[in-house]
Amino acid sequence: MKFLVPFLFLPTHGPVHKTPSPADEVCLTVPTATSTLSRVGDWHADPKVLLCAHGPVTFARAERAISYWKRLGYAFQTPREAAQDSFACATGKVPYNTIMIDIPSQSFKMGKHIGSTRTWRNEGTQIFKAKIEIIPAWGDSERILEHELGHALGWNDVTHTGHIMNGTWSLGGYNSIGLKK
Ligand SMILES: [Zn+2]
């Protein structure tokens, strides 16, 4: 089992990636942002989106971010809010074929990141689950959930100013060039 840990940084810290956090999965090297878009993989089935209770984003915010990607041709199953006692959210174990959205776990580097996303992949390029973590205070901010959903869909950070996949929040924007499916 593998995952990538691309991070979105606070503007003051620049576009530098941290090393992957320790976990029970095998870590891949985190790629640094490049000038051309690159993608680690794709989903073989439309992902479910699971919002943990007391998570960083509202249902409406999640739907807005999903719409951004739907307009680009990506498909999702209807998002769902997890029960208060959700096993997946309590344990951090993401169900199969799901993008789970929650507040930062213990491995999250507070003070350096706004959000982070891990993807788990089969056979190198087939994504079968992803976990997005966002600091609650930033949950409603522009572009952050859209950016992290981009990582969940397999896209890496790019250095293009104004692009949704720019890993530095202050240099990003809604530009989606190259992402259309
Ligand atoms: Zn990023």
Q: Which terms summarize this structure?
A:
181 residues, alpha/beta, Collagenase (Catalytic Domain), 3 helices
Can you walk me through this structure?
- The protein is α/β, with parallel strands linked by helices and 181 residues long.
- The chain has a single domain, classed as Collagenase (Catalytic Domain).
- Helix content is 15%, strand content 22%.
- The chain is built from three helices and nine strands; from the N terminus they run βββββαβαβββα.
- Strands 1, 2, 3, 4, 5, 6, 7, 8 and 9 form a nine-stranded mixed sheet that branches.
- Helix 1 links the parallel strand 5 and strand 6.
- The protein is globular.
- The N terminus is likely disordered.
- Bound molecules: zinc ion.
- The site of zinc ion has 7 residues, from strand 2 and helix 3.
